[in-house]
Each structure stands twice: as structure tokens, then as C-alpha cells.
Amino acid sequence: MGEALLKIEDLWVRYNTDETVVYAVNGISLELDKGENLGLVGETGAGKTTTALSILRLLPKGIGQVTGGSILFEGIDLFGLKEGDMRNIRGSKISMIFQDPMTSLNPVLTVGDQISEVLLLHGYTKETVQNRVDEMLELVGIPSKRKAEYPHQFSGGMKQRIVIAIALACSPMLLIADEPTTALDVTIQAQVLEMMNDLKQQINTSMILITHDLGVVAEMCDKVAIMYAGEIVEHGTLEDVYDPGREHHPYTAGLFGSIPDLTKEEDRLSPIGGLTPDPADLPAGCKFHPRCTRCMDICREAQPVDVDLAGDAGHTGHTGHTIKCHLFGQWSAQS
Amino acid sequence: MNNSESKYKKRSQLGSIWKRLRKNKTAVAGLCVICIFVLIAIFADVIADYSTMAIRMNAAEALQPPGVGHLFGTDEYGRDVFARVVHGSRVSISIGLLTVSIAVAFGGLLGSIAGYFGGPVDNIIMRIMDTVMSIPAVLLTLSIVAALGPGMVNLLWAMAIATIPGFTRVIRSVVLPTVNQDFVEAAKACGTSNRRIILRHIIPNAIGPIIVQATMAISGMILAAAALSFIGMGIQPPRPEWGSMLSSAREYMMNSPYLVVFPGLAIVTVALSFNLFGDGLRDALDPRLKN
Q1: Do B192 and A87 lie within an 8 Å CB cutoff?
Q2: Is A169 part of any domain?
Q3: Torsion (CA) B41, B43, B48, B53 in degrees, nearest 10
Q4: Which domain holds residue A140?
Q5: How many domains, chain B?
Q6: Which tens digit of pLDDT belongs to each residue from A117-147?
Q7: Is the residue at A310 inside a domain?
Q8: Measured between beta carbons, which residues in chain A are less than 8 angstroms from residue B174?
Q9: Contact (Cβ atoms closer than 8 angstroms) between residue A274 and residue A261
Q10: pLDDT of residue B134
């Protein structure tokens, strides 16, 4: 196995506000190879976006603070880079698609100007940039003659296509998509996802897809990490996490359990009880224990550790199927 | 070749702004009046000779009512009021435009830096501005002029310095909501530098209120220059200036009202035109109103 494209090791992030300290990300580790898609799934406030912003080093200044861990991109420690070097990486090697296309385009610049901006910043000259802008627009299915128009002249789905064109313009190695389809309606969602998949394969980009839509993940991703309260509670390949026959973290089970089943007659949805914990006041022990249906005494006191189930399931992949739960720790974590 | 294409694009953008501006009749009227006054200021020497008509005293022709020989009449020293209004436009319009340009340039820079970076940078800049603002503008301008000595250039700087804090505040306040918008974060995620974000993303989005504030301020500056000339700290006689013409005409306005009417009309017309034009320009510059 070669060097992983992106390696997050034991990342801790917190937000210092005037009143409290918010523990947004609590020791997560992830690995992503070239061309792989990772789905980052979790409820609102689970730390998904914080993780993404940490990779780009765009945490809000003075508030967001990385308190531990490292992020290696192509073997380079991103936290050790100078601001100027980091700027060169943003947009050219790592780029990000934001959640809401309505607000992530500048209303007073033409879309052509906005696509060419990122290209000009990363090595294109004024002579070559217009061809590339045309090419990118055609690639995302927008006639290139519309590049002189302003964002308000496009529909939501088309704006997201433009945002994607900007993100992919420099053929980045890593694309971070932060809920790229949440603001779109379902038919457009499918179109946009399909297009992203096609483009991704054309330029062989790795992607981190942040979402709370398990269906989107099933369609797009090779690997899945389920986040809860700033921790990755379950991580594995798509089959590992989605196969109902395998062992799962109670939270993952709850997430899947809350999806209505078309084959069964159900009057009510079955949500996970309770709310996500306040990240400023996380419970002791396992952070999921107040909502867990299989909570044990140990869960209230001791933090669970990652348990690798890969061996048990006969899985041979390079990243195991790990679950952070005491249910599975009885035989391997205690030794 | 591509270079000419980008030039073409720029022109067409200006063209579309012009197209939208043209639809606004009052703004076009304002622009026309401004153009007329600017032309008058440029060709003042052609219209009326400075040394023989505007400043030479002629007691024999003092206080003539408007007529064929003197279109706007003459003042108490027998100087032609029309010539003085024409030459006064040079002083008033250039003071208005220059002070506001200086104030917008400095205020824009300071305000957008303060708004964009926030925190201690914001605090330091804004506290300095508050300090300057705590001194009444007239008093501040007066003390600067008194220290530097009267004269057109000193007056310009003095008035600009007194105006900068106001502009800094306005510009910071229009920059602040823009800074937290997603497209600024998106621009950062593309590797855009802070300087470029301020110049290319934030200021264009904040341009509307800045233009309105600037046009309002131009008329304000013309009036302020007049006020300073009135107390002898501004433009020095015998150089004609609308404000000083007004104040020197006070004594004669009962018998010769035309002495205050014409310079007064000039001030009102120019000020109003700038306001109308600025209002129309704001609408035209906003592509969201385009259809």
C-alpha cells in the first residue's frame, strides 16, 4: 500500500467562545487513498463540517482551535505549512463545495469571472483561462456562452453545477463536498450527484462527501464513517456499514432503523430517542449512552475504544471495520 | 486576441450599467446637470475672463441688477456675478470631488480592513476613528486649516481628514455582513488572498451604500467649503467661491436679492444633481435589479 492521499490522525478541535468551550471534534482518525470516496455521515453538530474546515485550515480565526493531532496530505503536515503555501493548496489540490449554492457564489461577479478567478490563482494565464472556463462550463452541462451572466440568472441546480465547476476547475486531488445536495430538490439532487460521480472519475479525484443522507452515501461512496458528537463511532467500507447482517454500533443501527421500510406496513417512523448532546457539555463515558438502547454500566463511566471487526468478518481490506462501542470491546479492547 | 476579448467584456459590462442608468430619467437629468457644471468649470476662462470680469473691482458698476450687460448683475464691488458664479464652479466642484475621493479612498481602506479582519485590528482602527469623530468636524477642520494656513490644498486635506471617520464607519458597517457570507468562505477555500477577497469580493458587494454616501457627501463638502470660506478660513478673496459670495451678499440681499439667488441656485442645483445621480447609479450598479 502506498502513501495515503489524506491521513487524519487523532484530530481534536474545539471552539472557544466567550461563555463556553465547545468540543467539536474529539480525536478522529481517517485515511483516504487516491480515487476513493469517503462518506462522512452524522447528525447536525456531529463535527462533520468542522473536520472539513480543519483540512483546509479554515476554522474561524480566534475561535476554532486545533488542540491535537495532525493532518497529512500527500505526506505533508498541513498544520506545519505557512499561510501562503496553504493558499496554494486550497483550490488547486484540495477544494471544497459548500452546502448552499445560493450564497456561495458572489452575486456581483459573472460566473465566468468566478471560475476564472480560481484558475488565475493557480497557474493559468489570461490567455489560456477563457478556454478552460468554457470547457468547465460545458463539462457541468451549462452552455459556455452563459459565462457572462450573473448568479441570480441561474436556477439553484445550475448554481450548484457552477460551484462544482469552480471546485473541479484545477483538477484537485481531493474534493470535500459539504452536503452538496441538501439545498436542492430531489430530482436535481440525482442529476448533480451523477454528474459529480462522472467528473470525479474523469479526473480521478478523491472525495469526502459530508451528508446526513444515507441514500446518497450508498450511491457515491466506497467507505463510510459515521460521526457522533465529534467522534467516529463506526468506520468501514460501504458493505461493512450497510450490511444489516454484520455487527453495528447502536447509533448506526438507530440511523438505519429510522429509515422507513417500503416492504413493511409502518404507521410511525422510529427515530432515535433524545437529542444530540450539547458539545459544550458532553456526557462522560460513551457519548451516545444517554440515547443508547443497549446501554450498560460501563458505558456511563469508561470511554469506549475502536474495536476492529475486520478479522471476525473475514474482511481483507486495508482499513478494517471499526466500531467504537463497549458491546464489542469485551473480548478485544480489554486485553 | 484574448486580451481584446476581455476588454470587450469589460466594455459591455459598463455598457449594461449605462443602459440601466439611462432608463432612470432623474439620474440622467442629474448627470446632465453635473456635466454642464463640469464643462462650465473647465471652460470658465472662455465663458468669462477671470482677471477682467470676475475679480476686477469697478465701483461705477456696483450693484447693477441683472440685465444685458451683466447677465446676473454685479456685486457691491462692481464684479460681474455671472463670471463669479462660473469661476466659483471650479472651486466648489473640485473641492467636492477631491475631498470625497480622498475620504472614500482612506475610509474604504480602513473600513474594509477593520470589518474584514475584526478583532484587535478592528478595535484599534475604530477607536482611532472614534477619537477623531469626538472632535466636531468644523472645529477639527478649522484647527487643521489654522495650523497649516488657509489655501485650497490645505482646505482639501483638512476637510477630508474630518470626513474619513464617517466613511470608515459606513464602509465597515456595509462590509461586516458581507464578510460572513458563504461566498467569502468559498473564495478562501479557493486559495484567494485576503487582499483579493477585500478588493474583488467584498468591496463590489458593498459599493451601493458607499456610492450613496459619497454623493451625499459631495454636496455636503461643497456646503462645508462655503461655510469655511464664510468665516475666512477657506478660499481666500478675491477668488470667487459660491459660499463666500453668499455670505458677502448678506448685507445687500434686501435690495439686491439676485446676489444670493444665483450662487444659492448654483449650490442647490449641483448638490441635488449629485444626489439624483448617485441614487440612479446605485440602482444601475446592482446586477440583482437587472432584467
Answers
A1: yes
A2: yes
A3: 60
A4: 91-212
A5: 1
A6: 999 988 888 888 999 999 889 888 889 889 8
A7: no
A8: none
A9: no
A10: 93
Residues A103-110, mean pLDDT to the nearest whole number: 88
Question: What is the per-residue burial (b if ≥16 Cβ within 10 Å, else e) of B58-92?
Answer: eeebeebebeeebebbbbebbbbbbbbbbbbbbbb
Is residue B10 assigned to a domain? Answer: no
Contacts of A173 in chain B (CB under 8 A): none
Nearest neighbour of A104 by CB, restricted to B2, B6, B182: B182
Q: Distance (Å, rounded) from C-alpha B283 to C-alpha B290?
A: 9
Do the domain assignments include residue A97?
yes
Whichever domain contains B190, its CATH number is: 1.10.3720.10
Contact residues on chain A for B204, CB-CB shorter than 8 A: 106, 108-109
In a domain, B256, yes or no: yes
* B258 belongs to a structural domain: yes
- Distances in Å between the alpha carbon of B151 and those of B2, B17, B91, B157, B216? 49, 38, 11, 10, 24
Return the pLDDT at B288: 65
In a domain, A241, yes or no: no
pLDDT, one tens digit per residue, over A144-162 is: 889 888 888 898 888 988 9
**Residue A303 C-alpha from the chain's centroid:** 24
pLDDT category, A191, cuts 50, 70, 90?
Answer: confident
Cα dihedral B13, B14, B20, B26, rounded to 10, equals 170
- Name the amino acid, one letter, at A32: L
pTM score, two decimals?
A: 0.76
pLDDT average, residue stretch A309-325: 62
Which residue among B2, B189, B190 sits closest to A117, beta carbon to beta carbon? B190
- Domain with B35, as residue range(s), is 19-54+77-289
Greatest mean pLDDT among A96-105, A193-202, B114-123 lies in B114-123
Crossing angle of the two packed helices B2-23 and A126-139, in degrees rounded to 10: 70
Q: Which of A247, A280, A239, A215 has its CA nearest to residue A41?
A: A215
**ipTM reported for the complex surpasses 0.85:** no
